[in-house]
UniProtKB/TrEMBL annotation:
PANTHER family: ALKYLDIHYDROXYACETONEPHOSPHATE SYNTHASE, PEROXISOMAL. Keywords: FAD, Flavoprotein, Transferase. The keyword Cell division does not apply. This is Alkyldihydroxyacetonephosphate synthase (EC).
Length: 539
């Protein structure tokens, strides 16, 4: 059974409820020098905001839902509804800290126990014309779980937390079927009992779910080795307003377009994913992570391109630009930074760009692949920093969400955004996004890393830190994000792995064309003729 996560307050990122560590004074002072004075904010209220819109779901719908899933699994109390009202973008975190509710809240939270109950809930929602927002881990950073009701009078959050089983394992075919509500760590635990792994480790791994990964075309930190989530999906089972839809019968097929890929990335607009059949691998006995430093962004980008185009990428390949490296050197007390800077300077690397590489597999496989990667890196001018840097990254790989909370406490606006482009436009895209963010925000730190690399290009992941505008914190970020999205449009994709949701929807047409939007709408009207599924998202 999944550990229940408290979605109400920021302090419970995981069920262990680890508190946000306060920023060390040294780090806070360094930040102030770079972005100016930020005004620390009061801790978020422990109690619920005073006024939450009362639920609008009519009694007959509540009764029907209660009959389908049990009355105890239809929650209409304020705390449960508020808990599933937002995702976890910076703007969501601001909303969660506010003492008033100026965002939509679902009228009920419904917790079905399995695919049949999910189908029954959808059937009831069609009959009663109720909107349905599928809710996995609630880690969306693009408004994917916002409780928008569209033209419906009421909307429910369909929380899939009780779909928590490993359904089957076909070790011979290296396939496993997992229910949609299984979270990352539990998926690995269940598969580990069979000596298997999925290898999908996004930064939101601790909270996000199998269904959410599939619905958003997620990409994990080891995507260079294990692939993106859509590469792992062999089959999907969906509940739709028109009935159940199962896809995926063979490892490859020429039976028309691959409709599995229509379901994957559909963000809850075409159906509720209840089960996913996934390609799995033997759990790796050896994991090795290490760090290198490149003398410039351009040198690092070329080194990664060389690896990608010569089949020599490590499973994890992550290149930070000079600013991101500087921030980790300045804020990371774990590294012996002065000695490291001297060591690198002696080798001609004065403004380093760190590259993390990691391999997972058998000892023989790791040794073989590592030899080729490191040989190529050396030829590209990379200076080996060693295992400590790789281990330091591995240790802190899930720290981001907790650090965000600590930074918010300090009055810092902290947010990330991501895109991808072909190698020939990667630098232009990086320059343009950085310029757009800086012009909008003024004094700020804009960091960038290549988070995923491909033969033809790479994804760029930006992290932004700036002093929060206390008078208009929401507008401050909305303007910056719009400027970044404008800069991305035409050069890269509006999302490499965060999906479209509400926030990126205005930019989708520029990427897939009016006809593309029409095709998606036609698919939606085929499976969801009355438009109950996730109103206002994707298209
Ligand atoms: C700190 C942080 C770090 C992140 N790092 C990464 C990262 O490294 N890589 C990455 O890919 N993403 C990352 N994300 C984004 C997010 O975690 C992913 O989009 C994730 O796949 C969402 O999974 P979830 O279970 O939380 O889905 P939710 O947030 O609950 O839902 C996301 C969308 O999918 C829909 N949905 C959810 N479950 C289902 C279902 N069963 N059937 C149909 N629709 C469904 C929802 O309605 C919503 O539109 C990060 C987010 C945060 C907050």
């Amino acid at each position: 059974m999944n550990a229940l996560i408290d979605h109400r307050l920021r302090r419970s990122w995981t069920s262990e409820a680890a508190d946000a560590a306060r920023l060390p004074a040294r780090a806070a002072k360094w930040l102030e020098q770079r972005i100016g004075q930020a005004a620390p904010s009061a801790a978020p209220p422990a109690d619920l905001p005073v006024e939450i819109p009362s639920p609008k779901l009519d009694e007959s719908a509540v009764n029907a839902l209660s009959a389908a899933v049990g009355a105890e699994n239809v929650l209409v109390d304020d705390a449960a509804r508020l808990a599933r009202a937002t995702g976890l973008s910076y703007l969501d975190l601001l909303r969660r800290r506010s003492s008033s509710v100026d965002f939509p809240v679902p009228d009920a939270v419904v917790l079905p126990a399995g695919p049949d109950e999910v189908q029954a809930v959808l059937d009831i929602c069609v009959r009663h014309d109720v909107g349905v927002v599928p809710f996995g881990g609630g880690t969306s950073v693009v408004g994917g779980v916002a409780a928008l009701r569209g033209e419906k009078a009421s909307v429910i959050a369909l929380d899939l937390v009780r779909l928590d089983a490993l359904v089957s394992v076909d070790a011979e075919s290296r396939l496993a079927v997992l229910q949609a509500g299984v979270r990352g760590p539990e998926a690995e635990r269940l598969l580990g009992e069979h000596g298997l792994t999925l290898g999908h480790i996004p930064q939101s791994f601790e909270r996000a779910t199998i269904g959410g990964f599939a619905a958003t075309r997620s990409a994990g930190q080891a995507s260079s080795g294990y692939g993106r989530f859509e590469d792992m999906v062999a089959g999907v089972r969906l509940a739709t307003p028109r009935g159940e839809w199962k896809l995926g019968v063979a490892p490859a097929s020429a039976a028309g377009p691959d409709l599995r890929q229509l379901a994957v990335g559909s963000e809850g607009t075409l159906g509720v994913i209840t089960e996913v059949s996934l390609r799995v691998r033997p759990a790796p006995p050896v994991k090795r992570y290490e760090g290198y430093a490149l003398p410039s962004w351009e040198a690092g980008r070329e080194a990664v391109r060389d690896l990608a185009q010569n089949h020599a990428l490590a499973d994890i390949t992550r290149l930070s630009d000079g600013d991101e490296t500087e921030v980790s050197l300045s804020l990371n007390a774990g590294l012996k930074t002065t000695a490291l800077r001297r060591y690198l300077a002696a080798r001609g690397v004065r403004r380093p760009c760190f590259l993390i590489v990691g391999w997972e597999g058998t000892a023989h496989d790791v040794a073989l692949r590592r030899r080729e990667t490191t040989r190529r890196l050396k030829a590209s001018g990379a200076v080996r920093v060693g295992k400590a840097l790789g281990e330091s990254w591995r240790h802190g790989r899930f720290a981001g969400p907790r650090q965000r909370d600590a930074l918010l406490d300090q009055g810092v606006c902290v947010e990330t955004l991501e895109t991808a482009a072909y190698w020939s436009t990667v630098d232009e895209l990086r320059d343009d996004v950085r310029a757009a963010l800086t012009a909008s925000l003024g004094p700020s730190i804009v960091m960038c890393h290549i988070s995923h690399a491909y033969e033809t290009g790479a994804s760029l992941y930006f992290t932004v830190l700036t002093a929060r505008d206390e008078t208009d914190p929401v507008g401050q970020w909305q303007r910056a994000k719009a400027a970044a999205c404008e800069a991305i449009t035409g050069l890269g994709t509006i999302s490499h792995h965060h999906a479209v949701g509400v926030d990126h929807a205005p930019y989708l047409k520029a990427e897939i064309g009016s006809l593309g939007v029409e095709v998606l709408r036609a698919a939606k009207s085929a499976v969801d003729p009355t438009g109950i599924l996730n109103p206002g998202k994707l298209v």
